Amino acid sequence: MQSRVALVTGGGSGIGAGIAAELAGLGHRVAVVDRVAEAAGEVADRIRGEGGSAVAVPCDVSDPDAVAAAVAEATSALGPVGILVNNAGFAKDNSVLDMPLADWDAVVDTHLRGSFLMLQATAPAMREAGWGRIVNISSISALGDDERVNYVAAKAGLEGLTRAAALDLAPHGITVNAVGPGVVQTAMTVVSAARAGRTLEEHLRVQARSIPRGRIGTPHDIARAVLFFAAEDADFVTGQVLYVSGGPHG
Q1: Of residues 151, 155, 157, 222, which has the active-site annotation?
Q2: 151 is an active site residue
Q3: What is the pLDDT of residue 249?
Q4: What pLDDT, on a 0 to 100 scale, did the predictor assign at position 250?
Q5: What is residue 182's predicted lDDT score, i.e. its pLDDT?
């Protein structure tokens, strides 16, 4: 595989950190983008400590000026971005009737607006190169989930963005796909456990019983799917959503 520059948003923890490490392990030069500069720095340090190439870039992906600056910084340090992984996101769960507008905006702006802004900021260089890979991190929640209307709407919108952008960018050698994780143990799992009124251990046991594969997912599981979409020979796969959830959904 040819070495490319990969930019991973939300790369400072959880799934994003796992994706960044896997991409670096294949020889890609990785820009670890995260709103928390210290977290991005720790991941980039780990990658460099293992012999990889990485820089940490702080960025709020919902801010267009910050996105433009982050892409410029990553490009200056590593070269033009060839692989974009839109992973940044968080949860502020509530039901449709109880959802504060501020929480709706915060979640939708990060997951959906942020992915759109990053795509717009990186795709021109991919178009000029005639090659690019964009992977959006969705969720099985895009298919519907109770008490988290903003998150579900954002992820469903992200899958729509994936399909629309795939059509627009295919003539330029750029593929756009999405990976939809199921239950994966990250910091967000703690939030989900608290929302369900369970300890983390109880929550993981309950969730595992509902998964046909019989276990909770890991960031590595999601990263491997991202690597498939980012591969040189995945050129004929675009506009697709792959749920990585331990069993069928939908």
Answers
A1: 151
A2: yes
A3: 65
A4: 55
A5: 93
